[in-house]
Each structure stands twice: as C-alpha cells, then as structure tokens.
Amino acid sequence: MAEFLQYTTNGLIAGSSYGLLALAMTLIYGILSVPNFALGGIYALGAFVAFYVVQWMGPGYYLFSIVPAVLIGMIIAIVTERLVFRPLYDAPHAAGFIAALGLYSILEGSWAILFDPTWRKIASPYNDIVLQLGPICLTMQRLIILVFCLLFALATYYLVYRTLTGKKIRAASENKSVAQLMGISPFTTTTMTFIVGCVLVMIAGVLDAPAALVGASMGLTPITKAFIVVALGGLGSVPGAIMGGLILGLGENYGAAYISSMYKDLFSYGLFIVVLLILPNGLYRR
Amino acid sequence: MHPRFIIYFLIGLAVVLVPVFVQSNYWIYMFTMVGIFMVLVSSLDLAYGHTGLVSLAHAAFFGIGAYSSAILQLKLAVPILPALLLGTLITAIIAAAIGWPMLRIRGPYFVLGTLAIGIAIEIIIHNWDGLTGGVSLSGIPMFPEVTIFGTTFDLSSKRFFYYLVLAVLVVTQILIRRIVNSRTGRTFASIRENEDLAAALGMNVSGYKLISFVAASTIAAFMGGIYANYMGAIEPEIAGSHMSFNLLVMIVVGGTRSIAGAVIGPLLLWFVPEFLEAAQMYRPLFFGAILIIVIIFMPTGIAGKLRSLHPRMAKWIP
Amino acid sequence: MDSMNSSQSNPILRTENLSVQFGALMAVGQLDFQIYPGELFGLIGPNGAGKTTVFNAITSTVPLSHGDIYFKGKSLRSLKPHQVVTRGIVRMFQSATIFPKIPVMIHIMNGLSCRTKSSVWNSIIRPPSFHKEEQTSRQRARELIQFTALEGFEDHAAESLSWAQQKRLMLATALATEPRLILLDEPFAGMNADEIGEMIALIQAIRQDGMTVFVIDHNMKVMQRICDRILVLNFGQKLTEGLPEEVAQDSRVIEAYLGGD
Q1: Residue B273 pLDDT more than 80?
Q2: What is the ipTM of this complex?
C-alpha cells in the first residue's frame, strides 16, 4: 500500500508536468490546428534560464528564474508566431506541422551551439530537502513541481474560461471565420494564444530543470509525450489535456513499477497507440 | 535526339563513372549513403507525395528490414540473398499488421500514431538486446567474392555497393513510375486530393492506403537489408523518429512527386552540412532553417519551384 | 424509356422507416419512400430539413439509427460507402466537390476505377490486359468528356474550370462509375439560366439510357419542370409526396417554404 501511494505520488508529479506542456500544446492546436513541436525547444530554453539564473545569482534565486523565463517566453512566442506560423496561416495543416518540426530542430541546434551540447545539473536548494509525508517520500523540488504546475494549470483554466481574452481564444478555436465576423482579430488571438502557450512551457522548463538533466535536446521526450496527452485528451480540449497528463503520468509509473521499468517509455507510446485504435478521436470530444 | 535527353544521358553517364574517377573510399561511401537516402526518400514519396500519408515511421521499416535480415544471417545462418528477401517479406508483413488498424485513423492523429510507432520500434530494438544486440548489432557478414568466367569480383568492396545502391534506386524509381501511372496510382492521387470524394466514387480508401503504405515500407526494408550488409554493424537509431524526420525534410525540401525532388533533397541535406565547419553541431540548425524557408517560400519544394519558373522548365525537370 | 410503366415494376430504391439521429437531434425520422426504375424523383424542403442527410444515409456516410434502405431489393445496411457505389448508386455532392489538381481526363478515369480491375502487380508487370484496360478506360473517358462538353480541357486541372464546368465534370466522373441510380445534390445551385438549361439537357439525356435520377434542389420552378414525382421534407419528416403539380398546390408546402426561410 505504501509502495502504491509512492508510485501514485510520482505519477501525479510526472503527470502534472505533462499536463502543463499538454495544456500549452492544446491551446495552440485549438487555434492553428498545428501540433507545435517547437514547444520542446522552448521548454529546454526554460530549463537553461533556470540554470543560468542559479549559476549567476545563486541557488536562492532559483524560483525567481520564473520571471525572466516568462519574459523570454513572450518574446519567443511573438517572434516564432510572426516568422514561422503566420506565413503558413492558409497553407495545409501538414505544412504547419512540418514547419514546427523544423523550428524545433533550429531551437535544439541553437541551444547546442549557444550553451554547449553537454548535460548538466542544476543546484536547486530544494533538491536536498526530503519530505516524509506518512509513507510517501519526496524532495521539496518535486513538491514544488506538483504545486506550481497545478497552480499554473488552474490559472490558465481561469484565463481561458473566465476572461474576455479566453472567450476570444475559445471562439477563434471553435470557428475562425465566425469569430472574425464577430470582430475578433484572428492575428491578435493567435499571438495571445502563442504567448500563453510559450510562457507555460517556459515555466514547465524552469520547474522540471532541477529534477532532470539540462541539455539542448531535453525537451524532445516530454513534448512528444505532451503531444500524446493532447491526442488522448482530444486535440484542442483544455480539461482533456490536464486529465490526460495526469493519466499518462500515473499509467507510466504504475507500468514501470508493476510491469517493467525498462519499457517505461514504450508503455506510454503503446498506451497511446491502443487508445488511438479504440477511440480514433481521443478521449474527450469537444 | 532532343537536347533534354542528351543532358539526362550525360548526367547518367557521370553517375555511372563516379567510382572510376573518384579514388577516395570516403567519397564513394558518401555517394553510396546519398543513394540510400534517395531510395528511402523515393519510397516515402509514394506514401507522402502520392497518397498524402504523412508518415513519421518510414525509417522504422528501414530499420526493421535491416535488423530482420541481419538477425536471420547472424542467428540462423541464413545465406545473404535469402535473408535479404525473407527480411523484406517479414517487414512487409509487419508494415501491413501495423498499417491495417493505423490507416483508419485520419489527419493529425495518423501522424501522431506513426510518430509513436517509430519511437516504440526504436525502443523495442534498443531493449530487446537478446535478439538485436541492444545498442549495436555488429559482425553482419560482408558480401562474398564471386568468380564469373575467371574474373573475381569482390562484392564487399565500396565500389560494388555504389553500383548496387544505384541499381536499387533506378529499379525503385521505375517501380514507382509504373505504379503511379496506372489505376492504382490514380487512386492514390484521389485519396490525397479528397478522401471523401474518392470513397463516394467507389474507391476502397483504406485498402489503397494500405497498399501504398506497405509498398513504401517494403522498398525501405529491402534497402535496409542491403544497408546492414554494407555497414557490417547497425544501431537502433536508424529506425528512430529522428531519421524519419530527416527523410521527411528531404522530401519536402526536394519536392514531392518528382524524380528531381528525390535527388535534390538528399543531395542538399546530406552534402551541404558536410561542407560546414563543425558539421555535426550545425546540422540540426541547417536542417530546420532550410526546411522552414522551403516550406514558406516554395510549398512544392525545390523541384516544384524550378518547374514553376518557366513552362519549359516543367518539361526539363522530371 | 420504361418510366411510363414504372409504377407497376418493383422499386429500384425503397426506404423503410429511415431514421438518422445525431445525439438528441432527429435529423431524419421514419421516412418511407420508393423510387421506381427510370424515374426522376425530386426531394425538396427548406434549409435544414434533412435533405442531404437522406443522401448521406443512402450512401452509407452516416449510420442509420433505425430502419433500412433497399436497393434492387437488397439491404444497403452495413455497407461501406465505396461498396454502395459498386452496387450501382453514385452521388454528386452539393458544392462542386472535385479533385482540384487532377486533370479532367484522369479525373473522369477515376470514376472508372471501381469498374476496372488492374492491380498493383499489373501496373508493374504491365501485361497486355493492362494496356487494353487503360485504352478502354481512356476511350470511355473521352466519350464522357464529349457528352459533358468538356472537349479541349482534357489536360486542364479540375480547379481551373468554371463552376458550371466543374459541376459537369463531377457529373461525368459520377457517370463513369456506371451507376443505375444517381443522386444529385443541388445540381443547379450557383448557375445562370443557360447553364441550368445545359444541365437539364444532360439529365434528360442520361435518362434516355434508362438511368434513375434522384435530385435535391431549392429551385422549385426547375424541379416542377423536370421531376416525375416530388417528396417534400420538413424538419426531417415527410410533409407530402406526389406529382409536381399536386405538391406545388399543397398549402402545407407553401407554408413550410414561406415560414421556414
């Protein structure tokens, strides 16, 4: 039982991070119908921001790195949207998808050149604090990941469902031309969505950095899984992304614990393929 | 004779004579690799360019072909030629088994599914080390020496493989041209252009998608088998999603549905990074940048762009 | 030809309690009708009455919630859309749904695909039968090009044609599937009087060959002129059915049209 609770906690922590990434991806998918793989490169940038803040200012400033991460996320959102995705607004969706893959490749290549292609660890002060909550044992850092991811997910949920900006985003993702007729500019809505998405991914990068190795290609596996979560949760669905993230995190950890840890990654891809075959349109339908 | 065919003939002659003039084994190796990529890109074009199936699992079938042929030779001591054919057949069956349920899925979900399958196959190859040797499978036998009419041919030589890959490329292109210019190929095009209309005109959409997918995978698998014997050692990465992505970049940059496209894409993306300083490091940057530039400014690829420049060019670019 | 004695023969298409439900919405409910061989049967109704859903149900693109459809006495239930075409029913979509980049000649040959047999192996090996089949396909496509007055456009991409030409191209492609029953969804929409005249002439010519035609359109005037019988649909239910002049004078029809716009 204690073991089970431990796996559940681990699963929820991994799942909350998947959920945050998936949330970013699903918002952008809703508006562009493009699975934006480039978010994987932006996630790695978030981790690098945390790394350099800790290196230059000291471990105590680890959580402060969220601030520059958010600012950089906004800039990179506007730049990539203008330069890469806007010219492909009317092109077939496959073109946007392939361009996103290309952008990921550019980002990963740039980080490798700018920051050295080595893997490094972040000295977060919260890595060494071990909490014992009943039978469950976890580091402070992992608790921070869980709490902050859920917090930002809730904030996004509020933004999308309770504010005017969110209404515009949802209207544009529902039907672009009708939204345009209602006076909602598709360009500003897209830019807004990109900003929200990129900022979320940067934050996820900052949060996950101390619990993982920081490197140029660190975003590939998480973003691929976020991609799977989005597909499972229903492309474009916000609650689907959060729920799907948690389910994948839990499934992976139970699978690794009770089936085989060697095939932990295989488990999530296998799960995805099986679900896709049974429900070709994802778990949630909008 | 039309000047166009004289040019084609000269290009063909130059390609055939490369091993005569190029002495460096390194460059022969580079040209052979580019040839292998051309075969893979041509076969991917059958699924992607002609049928509209965006597959991120194409390299997986190249890898399964390479591994199954190599394993047959290493573990069961099957001679090279039967192992190659049997390995290709096994891969075709696996491709059909994967494709049959997958191809009912449409649009972005299909792309996601092929991505997951590509990654899953790489992981399986990596972890099933009893069969696949884990990180690397080495000791795959070289082609033997053969004596015909008193002359001995060393089939393990780099030059022999250059011609072998060239022959596979030519045969692949002929096969694809023949399939495309027929009832089957017209059905592929219909599915690409409008799937619902194709079904409304009585075409078995999922059946023909499967044919396209399996045919493309089978060609890749055959090339994989030859690659295994050429290299002598293979790694799981050849089946990975990264490799599949590179193939997709090559076809998009070169141009779909075009012989020239299947040649230009691999040439550009294989050779140009070689000339860059610190090539390995700049490769992803170069791949990504050229991909985005081409997709924004030349939606039909370099070959398509050249064709559209002048009506006469359209005739010159095959 | 045999449309005169159609009412005595067995219906070519018969629906029994045809119902299509989307969630809570009953798009078409308990619809019964028969179409006889050689007939030109019309279906009219205000926007959203479920006309296109009836076509979707016949061609198996939406599942039936209840009821059944019989073509030449055999049920069409559980067939895939492409199998319905093989049975002899083809449909022309509402807007000009075409293969945009495909040249006219090949476009029409695509319609022949379900009647020809050449396999992948045949296309690679190319035995004499392959060339023979290609030749007859081309010949048949040429006849259809001539029939729909598209000569001179053989190598033009379908998307480069005018609206009316695209509609005629779709008709030619649909005819290439050798149907016994053709479903036309608003064949006159977006056309001027001359083009409508040409389309009517084409439909009349098809009927000369014994084809049964089932047509949906808004244009009451044209429908009255060409149809043998008309069924009126409103909110997914049959309002009335009968000869064109009877239907036109039916007060419920007039009300549905004026009230439902």
Answers
A1: no
A2: 0.89
